[in-house]
Each structure stands twice: as structure tokens, then as C-alpha cells.
Amino acid sequence: MTPVELSRTVLHAVRRAVDAGELGVTVPARAVVTPPGPGGCGDYATTIALQLARPAGQPPRRVAEVLRPYLVEADGISDVVLTGPGFLNISLHGTAPAALLEEILRRGSRYGYAEESDGRIVQLHCPHDLRAVVVAEAAARILRSQGALVRTTAEAFDPEWTAALGVRVDAIGPPAPVEPRVTLRPVPAPGDPDPLRLGRDAARWALLHPAPHDRPRTGDEHLVQRESNPLFRVRYAHARTRALSRNAADLRFAAAPGPVTGVQELLAALADQPRVLAAAAAHRAPDRLARHLVTVADAALPFLPTVLPRGAEKPSAAHRARLALAEAVGAVLAGGLTLLGIDAPDHL
Fold first, then answer.
1. 124 neighbors 139 (Cβ within 8 angstroms)
2. What is the C-alpha radius of gyration for the chain, rounded to an integer number of angstroms?
3. Which distant-in-sequence residues (6+ apart) come within 8 Å of 124 by Cβ?
4. Average pLDDT over every residue of 100-120
5. Of the chain's two ends, which shows fewer C-beta atoms within 10 Å, N or C?
6. Where is the DALR anticodon binding domain (predicted)?
7. Which domains, ranges and CATH numbers included, belong to the chain?
8. CA–CA separation, 235 vs 178, rounded Å?
């Protein structure tokens, strides 16, 4: 069962509880499932009980107790444990890693995207400021990945921003009377050094990676090709996954999802991609996605050297499973970088 399928299972449990008269709530459109936090257990956890407590007029723990039997009955779930104020910790029937990788490889760089438009119309407006425009454009990409229809406007716009960074808006001038309208005002980038001198990819990263309330740094640290540069680590990890696929093809073996040991942190980071995209869209915060890509890359880099056979070793099921995990990493990194408007190179 993949995170997307588990989310649907959680919503089905809520619907069954509502139909049985045990909960008096409107079934939400989305149920977020994530790796368990501190004190949690199992493969995934959901806060759906905390989300529904107020509309249900019941304590979160009681809502969780109502939902637990419906979840335990679902195919693919082996156990559900309540922790804290009402967290539901879900254990699957030993298929989570393989199913997760199959889902990522099936969706490719669109893993974590909404299946269809949800009809939302959002207008993002920003002042005459380079960072605000770049943040608005990236936020619009992420919102569209989650099913929203988005229009971006800026009070004024410099044509060199398009020439240097490829950034565009839908209209220039006062915002149209579209609701909801969100005005984005991140802390502007310093004019010295000029971020445009960094080039498209490094400049976008410099403006998007910090939180909106932090002043971005626009120095040459974003251009160095070493581990101290987070953008380099993300792009290098992606390029390594592509090289592994090429080398595996030369050795005449392909990826096949299966069990891989010692990579729980990496699997958790991959499984978290849909939640991160949803949160980045909800908060108009591309920085959340940028930092998540660093988390994925940092978890993947120690693993990638173990993928291919060594010496006279023959490719085995373990190598095919590790290659599947590496290709899933590449898909997540490529998808995330694309949403930020940054190139995901095959060679670096």
C-alpha cells in the first residue's frame, strides 16, 4: 500500500464512521499520512483524528478510537496503535517499501502530484521585487501540481528577470478581483552581490531555499561544486542516480522494487514527498520543498555507492532492488527541482 492509497484508506474509514453515525463531520478532501514522529511506531502515522476533533465535538483521542477499528479491518493494514493526544500509527503487511517504490517509479517526476484538478482558483500577487516574483512563480508551479488553477501578477516586472532566470508572471499591474488572493512579500535579496550574476539555477536556489522571513545570501557559495553547497548535493545526487541507471544497463540488469535494508531514513524521506508538496502549496512556501530535497539527497548519498555489483559480483535481486530505490530517489529529486524551475542534470 502506497502513501496515496493509505490516505484514501484513512478517508474511507472516516466515511464509514460517518455513515455509521459515530462521527458527525464532513469527510475531508485529504488525509495526510507521514512517517511516524518521535514516540510513534509502525510504517505511517496520520493526524486525521486531531483534524476532525473540533468539528466532531469530541476529544482527538476519542475520534482516533472510533476510527481505529475501521482502519484495522482494511486490506494491507496489520495494526493501528494510538499514541499521544490522538495520533494513529499504522503498520502495513510488510509491503510498504516495495509498494512505495513501485508508486514512485510509476509516477516518475510527478510523484506527489494531485490526480486531477480540485477546482481551486488562486491568485498570487507580488511587489516589484525579484525574490517575490521568483517565489510566486515557484509557488504557482507547486499549487498547480496539487490541482489548483493559479494566476500570478506583479506590480512591476523587469524583462531581464526573464532573460536571466526564465521567470515570468501572467500579468503586470494591479491584481484582478480574484479570490482567494495572496500577496507574497518575502524579505528581498540584497542588491550586492546581484543575484542575477549567479545564473538561472543557482540564483533561483539562493532565492527559494531560505524561509521567506530570512534574507537570502547571493554570494559565490551557491556556485561551488562541493558538499558545503546544498544545491550541489541535490543535483549531484540526481546525476549519480542517472549514472547508476546507465551503468546497470551496461551490466544488463534493470530495477525491480524489493526489500532494501538499512535505508529507513531514505524511505521515510521519499514517502514524505506528497505531504511536503501539499504543505508547500498550502503555505505558498517553495522553501519547504527545497529543504526537503536536501533531506532526500543527504539520506541518499551514502546509499548510492552500494547499488552496483562490485568486482566479479553478479547482479542479484538485491542489486535490482537497490537500483529501484536509486531511481526513485532520482525521480523525486528531478520532480522537486523542476517545480522550483531548476535543471536536474543527468551529468555533473
1. yes
2. 22
3. 136, 139, 140, 143, 150, 151, 152, 153, 181, 182, 184, 284
4. 90
5. C
6. 234-348
7. 3-94 (3.30.1360.70), 121-198 (3.40.50), 230-339 (1.10.730.10)
8. 37
